Amino acid sequence: MTTSVVHTSRRPSSLAERPEHSADSPLSIHAMTVAYQRKPVLWDVDYDAPPRALVAIVGPNGAGKSTLIKAALGLVPRATGLVEFWGVPFKHVRERVAYVPQRESVDWTFPVSALDVVCMGRYRRIGWFRPVGQAHKRAAMACLDRVGLADLAHRQISQLSGGQQQRVFLARALAQEADLYIMDEPFAGVDAATERTIVQLLKDLRDAGKSAIVVHHDLQTVTQYFDHALLLNMRVVAAGPVEQVFTPDNLQKTYGGRLTLLSEAAEAVARAGINVR
Amino acid sequence: MSPASPQPPTWNEILRVLTFQGGYNTNAVLAGAAMLGLAAGVVGVFALLRRRSLVADAIGHATLPGIVLAFLTAVAMGMSGRSLPVLLLGAALASALSVACIFAIIRYTRLREDAAIGIVLGVFFGVGVVLLSYVQHPGNTGGASPAGLHHFIYGQTAAMRAGDAFVMAALALIAVGVTAALFKEFVLVTFNSEHARVLGLPFTLLDGTMLALVVLVTVAGLQAVGLILVIALLIIPPVAARLWTDRLPVLVVCAGGLGACSGYAGAAASALLPRTPAGSVIVLSAGSVFFVSLLAAPRHGVVATVLRRITLRLRIAGEHLLEAAYEHSVSRRGVSTLSSRSLRAMERLWGWPVWMGPIVVHGLRRKGHLRRTGDGYEITGPGVVRGARIARNHRLWEQYLRTHADAAPGHVDWSADMVEHVLSPALVAELEAELLAAERQPGRSPEGSPA
Amino acid sequence: MNLAPNIDLFPILAAVLAAFCCGLLGNYLVLRRLSLMGDAMSHSVLPGLVIAFMLTGSRAAPVMFLGALMAGITTVVLVELIKRLGRVEPGAAMGVVFSVLFALGVLLIERVARNTDLDADCVLHGQLESLFWPDGPARWLDVLHPATLAAVPPQVWTLAITCAVSFVFVLVLYKELRMAAFDPALATAQGFHASILHYALMVLVAGATVAAFEAVGSILVIAMLIVPAAIARLLTDRMPTQLLLSTTIAVVAAVMGYLGSIALPSAMDKPQVNAAGSIAIALGVLFFVAMLFGPRDGVLATAIRRFYLTRRIALDDLLAALYRHEEGSPITSRFAPKVYARARRSGLVMPGQDTLTEAGRQRAAELIRRHRLWETYLVHRAGISADHAHEPAEHLEHLAEPLPSGGPQHDPHGKAIPPGVE
């Protein structure tokens, strides 16, 4: 092992020095601590996401995966820490970042159609006060088509299945034409067809030079779907290319003594044919 | 109500009223209001926990048509339209109907509770207003005067008689008795209704009992404080008590106590000060109790929360800085000075707001961990000791998260002075051994630092 | 019944304007589950009025409006603060705020403004009928004459302005409001600050509440805010339709209620009853009708749909059982004689005996085909074991859509799958 692939959470020894990739990295987090009430949920997280890659955030329940992305986007207040997207604060690059929240976060009986929801992804482009024009509607329609829901564009969203709702959210993110897609558990409770669609889309995005950071809970599929992984358990346990990070040893660190999960993961590693040293 | 007096009441007067020596009528009002507050507080707790506080609002407003209809019916049947039991029966029936309507709307449409409450409240009150305007024409009621019906809206606490006080006491007894007898069933239904159903409890009956208690208190309280203000007594004391405790039995006692105190204090103030309607003063005293609780409650109060948040933030920041300074001094043996410039750069990197740096540095200097030198700061002897301990703690915690993650995040307290305060010594020794082993393996080092 | 313009034009106009702007803004309250904010605000308006009166000594409409508006905004801010600081659930937070503010209002009236005609009754009940036009025009054509316009009651002007502002606000910020209501996190992440939009909306609701309460009384403002939006919610799934329907319903109810308050009692030789209350009743009646007879989700429509579905499923099950009987399996379930009778009447089962007709066999074959295709799908694609696949397939076979693609000849139990009809 020549270089340490295990991400070091150590601060650079020269105190004022900035971590290296800041300007290139779609998301860099420095010394971020997030606390609900008395207890910190994330402690001193340092992370630089690689550009043009699919990154999975993996960790046990309560490890702070969703909190990490919410705090990065400013939806949850940070106790300390600096978050930058391509080396600048979020507010300067809002249109380059698309966020896909968890499906349960909205009221699906709301009186809007699938197309309306997708159009919301373009509101930033359209700007204040102006109505949604035909060109934007066409763009939104194209995004719905990419997730295979063009036929259902005018359905009210409550009449869609769970997987279709997730795909609508995905289409909305696509409609933002962002460079970075941040997704919170997009695979949770979706059908096989939707899962395939999401994976294909992620690969297409990466091939188009975009990045995606995805909170993921299914250890079995991490190695198949993603290039990089961030193992999180209140702080960064390991980060790097999946085949190097996603080792039984690191999983032991992330998941501790959870034997069932561990055996599951070992199986996944074996199935993916990764050479474990 | 005492006659209007220009001077504020003397201490003597206040004492006399508070110790039930302020005359027969004042005593009745005081006792009645306190009893009503007790009943409403106890009953309101379960309404609050079932997220139904405002159902009481709808119930209160829905009594109006009931009262007027009861008046009209009584007049039509040749009885006196002002008979209290008849009016209260009307009020109770109408409010029961309103509750049924709310649940029907929730059950049969996709509208949520808030909309259902709003619809029922508005429409029932509308019916009440129309009926009220109808009875106000003497021709419509065969000469019976409806005067006094509108007292139900604002109440006349000051007119409470001893009989009313006994009614209130009976009410409080019922509320407390039923709650005490069915306490564990109520808790189950409130906390986990599905579980209650699975256990085979008569869920609807229990839920209905809770609502019936709310209706009872509302209807009985109408006379005393009026319909809008009885709602306040049902909502405010439980919400205030909720800020003080997380334990349900304590919560019920607290809410009842706060309600009783509000009723008692409000009635007393109203008796002492001229031209103060007792209902309003009672509600305002409940409101003040809430306000004080919101600010000063030990765990959930605003002051405690804000202090805790600031302390936590400063503490995290201080530990960060000291750990960094310690590592800085270790990595460059001997050079232990932190220039102001690099300090500012660090603050920027960590995303500190401008005000935080000076406070943190000041705190560390006061503890003697940092010392000012020409261009910046220098870590002192005690600072090195403390910094080393923080660094060790953090590494041990890291190791703990890695090896014992199944139990982890909940247990981890980064700010604990010593890991030993949280974890057993044996576990700490184990972690230390693991850490040492990990550090001997260069590529595997969790920290990668040449210690 | 007297509909002469000089008496009734203004009350109706005021009611219609109030209904329009409350009906419009109410949509966002209902959709954001903040219905009771209107309730809270309309109660807490009282101290605002009294304090404005105390400060200025005037009862002029603009002063009152401003005072009440301030009270409304205070309510929103306090509710927000209590919710956030005390982690109190929204309903309870509103209850605390409005009841305390209302009590404050009652106390202030008693202590300060006892001798003025500021009284809580008027705030609660509304005096729509008192909005008369002293120098009304003799003919409709004179309505726009400057002199007649000058005589328009100030309440009507306030309402008209509030209406116009609300209308423009909702029109211009249509898409922003919709996004902030649907997904506040996304709105904020995109730079449309959901909380700013929320406060702007709440200021308008406060304005509408205040403008309307002098005409319709503050409790009835709640009915106007919530009921039309709730009715529209039962009838449509489209936002534009929702807005259009709710305002239309509000206006219709306003006119209906007002005319009803005169016409119905006068038909019985009684004097007019409170018009604002009648409007609330009209809204209640419309809601009841929509709840029972709504075309898609109404109680009646649902019940009828369920009835026909149960009937069809019973018939289908009978046909399938007879088909399986022809294949050689015994009939295990019992069917009510009336199901047989219905099947014979429709010519699906031979009269007098328990065998399928040609038409019945075709329909049964189609059902069995669906059932077995589903079983195949469930076993091969969804990983359900063969002996557990029957039950879900039993439900799925009754769906017309979707159908797993055909292809296999036999189901997991080795039974033949009947070919499709076409």
What would your notes on this structure say?
The complex is a heterotrimer of chains A (277), B (451) and C (422). Chain A is of the alpha/beta class and 277 residues long. Chain A is 34% helix and 20% strand. Chain A contains ten helices and nine strands. In chain A, helix 2 packs parallel to helix 5, helix 4 crosses helix 5 and helix 7 packs parallel to helix 10. The longest helix of chain A has 16 residues. The longest helix of chain B has 30 residues. By secondary structure, chain B is an all-alpha fold. Chain B contains 18 helices and three strands. Chain B has a three-stranded antiparallel sheet with strand order 1-3-2. The N terminus and C terminus of chain B are likely disordered. Chain B folds into two domains: 256 residues, ABC transporter involved in vitamin B12 uptake, BtuC (Orthogonal Bundle), CATH 1.10.3470; 132 residues, Winged helix-like DNA-binding domain superfamily/Winged helix DNA-binding domain (Arc Repressor Mutant, subunit A, Orthogonal Bundle), CATH 1.10.10.10. Helices cover 71% and strands 2% of the residues of chain B. In chain C, helix 1 packs parallel to helix 7, helix 12 crosses helix 13 and helix 14 crosses helix 15. By secondary structure, chain C is mostly helical. Chain C has two domains: 290 residues, ABC transporter involved in vitamin B12 uptake, BtuC (Orthogonal Bundle); 95 residues, no CATH class. Chain C is elongated. Chains in contact: A-B, A-C, B-C.
Task: Compute the number of strand runs of chain C.
Answer: 0
Q: Mean pLDDT of chain A, rounded to whole units?
A: 79
Low-confidence stretches of chain C: 1-6, 133-138
Radius of gyration of chain C: 31 Å
Largest sheet of chain A: 6 strands, mixed
CATH architecture of the largest domain in chain C: Orthogonal Bundle
Q: Which sequence of strands runs across the widest sheet of chain A?
A: 5-6-7-3-8-9
What's the order of the H and E elements of chain A? EEEHEEHHHHEHEHEEHHH
Number of H- or I-type helical stretches of chain A? 10
Structural class of chain A: alpha/beta
Topology overview:
The complex is a heterotrimer of chains A (277), B (451) and C (422).
Chain A: E1 28-36, E2 39-48, E3 54-58, H1 65-72, E4 80-84, E5 97-100, H2 114-120, H3 123-126, H4 134-146, H5 162-175, E6 180-184, H6 192-207, E7 211-215, H7 219-225, E8 228-233, E9 235-241, H8 242-245, H9 248-255, H10 259-271
Parallel strand pairs in A: 3-7, 3-8, 5-6, 6-7
Antiparallel strand pairs in A: 1-2, 1-4, 8-9
Chain B: H1 11-18, H2 24-49, H3 53-76, H4 84-108, H5 113-135, H6 151-154, H7 162-181, H8 183-191, H9 193-198, H10 203-225, H11 227-244, H12 248-272, H13 278-296, H14 302-331, E1 337-339, H15 340-349, H16 356-366, E2 370-372, E3 376-379, H17 381-403, H18 425-440
Helix pairs in contact in B: 1-12, 2-7, 2-10, 2-11, 2-12, 3-4, 3-5, 3-10, 3-11, 4-5, 4-10, 7-10, 8-10, 10-11, 11-12, 11-13, 12-13, 14-16, 14-17, 17-18
Chain C: H1 5-31, H2 35-56, H3 61-86, H4 90-111, H5 120-125, H6 146-150, H7 154-172, H8 174-182, H9 184-189, H10 194-216, H11 218-235, H12 239-267, H13 275-293, H14 299-327, H15 337-345, H16 358-380, H17 390-396
Helix pairs in contact in C: 1-2, 1-7, 1-10, 1-11, 1-12, 2-3, 2-4, 2-10, 2-11, 3-4, 3-10, 7-10, 8-10, 10-11, 11-12, 11-13, 12-13, 14-15, 14-16, 16-17
